[in-house]
Each structure stands twice: as C-alpha cells, then as structure tokens.
C-alpha cells in the first residue's frame, strides 16, 4: 500500500491521534503546558512515524487539512483540561507544530481564528511552533502571516532553534514570544562543547524579551544545568514522553 493513498482521508476515518508531551517550568517544576504531536495508526501500514508521514503530507498539501484537525483537537483538549483544573489553577498552554506548507497556505489565519472562537481557548494559550528554516525560506511572505497570527493574540515559537542558518537580525523582526533550543544542543550538555552555545542563545533571546524552551532534556544533570543558566521551560523524556490524553491525568491535577 502506498503511504500517500493510505494517508488520504486518515483524519475522517479516525486514524489520527494527538499525543501530548508536558512542558515544565524549570524554576518551580510546575506544568506550563504541552506540545501536541500527531500520531497515525494506519489499518494497512500499522504505526507510521510522523518523520515519514509529515513530509508526504507537506508535499501533497494534505497537511493543511490534517493541521486544521490537529489545531481543533489540541485546543479542544486543552479547554477540557483547563475546566478540570478549575479557575484557580495555573493556566496551561498547548503548543502546535505548523508546517511551512500551512504557513504558505492562505487559510491559516482564518483557521486559527475559527478554532479560537469555536473552542473559546484564550488566544495566548495557543502556541504555534514554526521552524527556523521554514521562516528563513521566505522571510517577507512569512512575516505577513506571522504578524496576522500575532494580531490574533496567539504565541509564536521558533522551533528547532540553532539548526538552520539563523541570523540574529531576523529573530528581532519576528513577533515571537518563545525560542525552542533544539535537542541536538541539549543532548550534548556536559561534554564541554555545546554549553557556550546554549548560554549565548539564552542570553540573546532573553535580551530580546523572548522565553526559552529547551527540548530533549533526558537527564537530571541537563535539567540542573539549564535551571542554573536561567532557562525558562523544559521538555523531554526526563519528565515524560508524549502520550495519549487519558494517560496524562496525573499531570493535569493542579497540585503537580
Ligand atoms: O513526534 P516525534 O514524536 O516523533 O515527531 C517527529 C517529528 O514530526 C518532529 O520534528 C515533529 O515536529 C514532527 N511532527 C509531529 N507532529 C507534527 C504535526 O502535527 N505537524 C507537524 N508539522 N509536524 C509534526
Ligand atoms: O521537531 P520537534 O521539536 O517538534 O519534535 C519533537 C520530537 O522530539 C518528537 O519526535 C519527540 O518525540 C521528540 N522528543 C521529545 N523529547 C525528547 C527527548 O527527551 N529525547 C529525544 N531523543 N527525543 C525527544
Ligand atoms: Mn516542535
Ligand atoms: Na524541535
């Protein structure tokens, strides 16, 4: 069976699921939110990794519809969790990956606006992750879309930061609130070569007024080092892998 054929209509047939990975405030250890990650269980192909199907979805344009489904589902889930936690609890966010193809598609701003209205999710609780390379490919075109999204009140994140050809001047021009340091930097904390880069990224992004999420944190040593350096939020298997919503109840209770 051809992957592209199998993927067509997967959302309508109920084959797609959203898993959520906790993102933690490193200073307090409190839950700050989740990254939403798409999962596909194909009847014909079995479990297919997003590393395989997301590129196909991008090339064919299917990512636009799948991404709309993901946004709606992620927002709906966060609203449900927030109601469970009650009004006094720390507000949570949900961070959703947006592919370059979705950014280029004229429908993204309308879709985000609709999802916010339908679900009554507070706009700032919706974070949209855009890769650095995606922005750099077409910075002027992307900037118009990012400014329109920013005007809706959503929080924009630069994902996989440090892996592309980043320029400091572009970062200053983007209406982003969050920079996510790629896990390739985090994984080598402790070997003496990457620490200066991570320190520099933290200093620079904080000077610009952005908050920093470190991805791929797997050990207590990495967590401690990042906390000492003033990193804001961390995400990684040290805390939790992405999991289905029903397995995340222990994270949702406001005491955690
Ligand atoms: O989810 P991991 O758990 O395997 O994800 C692998 C890659 O697929 C990551 O680079 C991640 O950003 C990407 N990915 C996962 N879910 C989505 C999604 O819903 N949309 C986009 N654009 N990328 C996703
Ligand atoms: O590209 P993006 O950052 O959106 O991708 C998230 C990817 O990182 C997913 O595949 C997710 O499963 C993976 N991931 C999340 N935490 C960790 C971690 O601590 N270690 C490793 N190796 N991968 C992680
Ligand atoms: Mn991401
Ligand atoms: Na990333």
Folded structure, characterized:
This is Bifunctional diguanylate cyclase/phosphodiesterase. The chain has a single domain (3-251), classed as TIM Barrel (Alpha-Beta Barrel), CATH 3.20.20.450. Helix content is 44%, strand content 21%. The chain is built from twelve helices and nine strands. It has helices spanning 3-7, 50-60, 63-85, 100-104, 108-119, 132-137, 139-152, 168-173, 183-186, 195-207, 220-228, 249-252; strands at residues 16-25, 31-42, 46-48, 93-97, 126-131, 155-161, 178-181, 211-214, 233-234. An eight-stranded mixed β-barrel has the order 1-2-4-5-6-7-8-9. The structure holds guanosine-5'-monophosphate (G) (2 copies), manganese (II) ion (MN) and sodium ion. One guanosine-5'-monophosphate (G) is lined by residues 21, 37, 97, 159-160, 183, 215-218, 236-237, 242.
Number of beta-strand segments: 9
The string of secondary-structure elements, in order, is HEEEHHEHHEHHEHEHHEHEH
Write the CATH fold name.
TIM Barrel
What's the CATH first level? Answer: Alpha Beta
Class derived from helix and strand content: alpha/beta
- Helical amount: 40-55%
Bound molecules: guanosine-5'-monophosphate, manganese (II) ion, sodium ion
Radius of gyration: 18 Å
Largest sheet: 8 strands, mixed, barrel
- Tally the helices: what do you get? 12
Shape: globular
């Amino acid at each position: 069976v051809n992957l592209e054929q199998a993927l067509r209509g997967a959302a309508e047939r109920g084959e797609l699921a959203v898993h959520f990975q906790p993102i933690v405030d490193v200073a307090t250890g409190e839950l700050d939110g989740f990254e939403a990650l798409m999962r596909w269980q194909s009847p014909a192909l079995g479990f297919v990794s997003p590393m395989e199907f997301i590129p196909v979805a991008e090339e064919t344009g299917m990512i636009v519809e799948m991404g709309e489904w993901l946004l709606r589902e992620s927002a709906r889930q966060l609203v449900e969790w927030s109601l469970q936690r009650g009004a006094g609890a720390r507000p949570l966010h949900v961070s959703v990956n947006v592919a370059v193809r979705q950014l280029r598609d004229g429908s993204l701003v309308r879709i985000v606006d609709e999802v916010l209205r339908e679900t009554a999710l507070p706009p700032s609780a919706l974070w949209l992750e855009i890769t650095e390379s995606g922005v750099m490919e077409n910075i002027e075109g992307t900037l118009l879309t990012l400014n329109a999204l920013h005007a809706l009140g959503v929080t924009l994140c630069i994902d996989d930061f440090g892996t592309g050809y980043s320029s400091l001047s572009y970062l200053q021009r983007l209406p982003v609130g969050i920079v996510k340091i790629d896990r390739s930097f985090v994984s080598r904390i402790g070997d003496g070569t990457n620490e200066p880069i991570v320190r520099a990224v933290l200093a620079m992004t904080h000077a610009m007024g952005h908050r920093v999420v470190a991805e791929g944190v797997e050990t207590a040593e990495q967590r401690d080092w990042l906390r000492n350096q003033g990193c804001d939020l961390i995400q990684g298997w040290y805390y939790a892998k992405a999991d289905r919503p029903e397995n995340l109840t222990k994270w949702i209770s406001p005491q955690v």
